[in-house]
Write a structure and sequence with these properties.
The complex is a heterodimer. Chain A is an alpha/beta fold. Chain A contains nine helices and ten strands. Chain A has helices at 44-51, 76-80, 98-109, 114-127, 143-156, 173-189, 200-206, 224-229, 234-247; strands at 4-15, 18-29, 33-37, 59-64, 67-68, 83-86, 161-165, 193-196, 209-214, 217-222. Chain B has helices at 3-40, 43-58, 61-75, 82-108, 112-119, 124-154, 166-177, 180-208. The chains are: A alpha/beta, B mainly alpha. The A-B interface holds A 52, 54, 77-85, 87, 89-95, 104-105, 108-109, 137-140, 150, 153-154, 157 and B 112-113, 115-123, 126, 130-131, 134-135, 138, 211-214.
């Protein structure tokens, strides 16, 4: 059994009177890809932000490689640099060229020297197929290219885990494939990934486990085959059918 | 108006330029932390900035000049030249305006890039410095353009403190020659030229630092 990278224990988060997360617990092991699915407004994105403490949870603990991130004494900036995050709307740094978007973390956070950092950044651009776009600004790239760039930015930090927050939801259908391809190859290379997505094809073929969330709780968790063919809860089956119908199964 | 008077007036233009540059510079240096404090700071910081902005935008420049130069500076035994006092007061006042120009730009950037910067491990202050400000400053150039032309014109109020800027000198010439029209026409021409040069330079700067996808002319 490979070791646990991420341990999430009893996470609660409220906004005012609204309890978005009502006690979420799960683990992600080294090299695993877990896909979180569920209706919108269920707290999936909030959960991802709780994990890297962009949104500190009200209650509960998060451990990354045995280090408790919810501990106030921990250097959270340092911890965050080892958790990649890919956003639905890319959030690229608009004033920086593609290469510099990847470079800036290496130079300003990891304090790497320029030349070494550049070599690494070029390598990451190549990994997502953007080596010829190094000097383009984000606004000059297509949505698919922008999302691949944001994956490269996350990869450059050499993360132990990457969180994907609906990485293909803002993309035109014909651009989804190129992003999923990058994600699939990352999964195959053994990157540990936690993905919030509606891409059932991806979930089915790449995920080791699927977590089905609704109303701030985990309803069911298990390997894709089990959830798709013999879900324990009626609600899981209903949701999976509906979403598969809606989004198809691209990215298989 | 002879050559000698024109030369005298142009030396005043230099004083005006120095006054404006000093005020704009000081306003920028104070305005940046104010804007950042108002957007990212805690409640007391943001309240303090709002108070400052309210105070300096709420009073006529002449009132501020008298209040500080004859009032406060005398009270605390701060012996400043009229020029230095005018620069200082105009700088503090410009900070109030510039902070609001910059605040608008910062807020137009959206929180996503800040989230992304924090997610790769940048501290908040680093993210502000490396990600937010470079973009916000670019977006502020059109606003500065009007701040520049505003300050340039306001600098004539320093006449009241006896600063030897353009208007003060034009007034001297007028009363010496008994011909107000040439003196004040020349004074007006210099202001118009300075406005043109400054605004044009800022337009050029805006073009030079433009990022694709930012601040472009719209077809629709």
């Amino acid at each position: 059994m490979s070791e646990t990278i991420l341990k999430v224990q009893d996470i609660h988060k409220s906004y005012g009177d609204l309890e978005v997360l009502k006690g979420i617990s799960f683990e992600v092991k080294q090299g695993e890809t877990k896909v979180i699915i569920g209706p919108s407004g269920t707290g999936k994105s909030t959960l991802l932000r709780c994990i890297n403490q962009l949104t500190p949870p009200d209650k509960g603990c998060i451990w990354l490689n045995g280090v408790e991130l919810t501990d106030h004494k921990v250097d959270i900036n340092k911890a965050r640099s080892s958790i990649g995050m890919v956003f639905q709307d890319f959030n690229l740094f608009a004033h920086l060229k593609a290469l510099d978007n990847v470079l800036i973390g290496l130079i300003k956070v990891k304090k790497m020297e320029k030349q070494k950092a550049t070599e690494l950044a070029v390598e990451e651009l190549r990994r997502v197929g953007l080596e010829d776009k190094a000097s383009s600004y984000p606004a000059e790239l297509s949505g698919g290219q922008q999302q691949r760039l944001s994956i490269a930015r996350a990869l450059a930090m050499n993360p132990k885990l990457i969180l994907f927050d609906e990485p293909t939801s803002a993309l035109d259908p014909e651009l989804i494939g190129e992003v999923l391809e990058v994600m699939i190859s990352l999964a195959r290379e053994g990157m540990t990934m936690l993905v919030v997505s509606h891409e059932m094809g991806f979930a089915r073929s790449v995920a080791n486990e699927i977590i089905f969330m609704e109303n701030g709780v985990i309803i069911e968790e298990g390997p894709p085959r089990q959830l798709f063919s013999r879900p324990k809860h009626k609600r899981t089956g209903e949701f999976l059918n509906k979403i598969t119908e809606l989004y198809g199964e691209s990215g298989k | 108006m002879g050559f000698e008077e024109l030369y005298y007036l142009l030396k005043g233009a230099l004083v005006t330029i120095e006054l404006v540059a000093g005020a704009l510079g000081l306003g920028l240096v104070i305005g940046i932390p104010m804007a950042v404090g108002q957007v990212y700071g805690n409640k007391p910081v943001s309240k303090a900035v709002s108070f400052y902005v309210w105070f300096f935008r709420g009073l006529p420049l002449l009132v501020l000049f008298f209040l500080f130069y004859f009032g406060l500076f005398t009270l605390i035994n701060l012996d400043l030249s009229a020029f230095a006092a005018a620069s200082l007061v105009m700088g503090m006042r410009s900070a109030a305006y510039q902070s609001q120009i910059l605040r608008g730009s910062i807020q137009s950037i959206g929180s996503g890039q800040m989230l992304a910067a924090r997610s790769i491990g940048m501290s908040k202050s680093r993210a502000i410095w490396h990600i937010i400000l470079p973009q916000a400053l670019r977006l502020s150039i059109p606003g500065w353009s009007s701040e520049y032309s505003g300050i340039l014109k306001d600098s004539a109020v320093a006449y009241a403190l006896g600063v030897m800027e353009i208007l003060t000198r034009a007034n001297f010439i007028s009363s010496r020659t008994y011909k107000p029209m040439p003196a004040f026409l020349a004074c007006a021409a210099i202001f118009l030229i300075l406005t043109y040069i400054g605004v044009k330079s800022l337009n050029l700067l805006e073009k030079k630092v433009r990022i694709p996808g930012y601040g472009e002319r719209r077809e629709i």
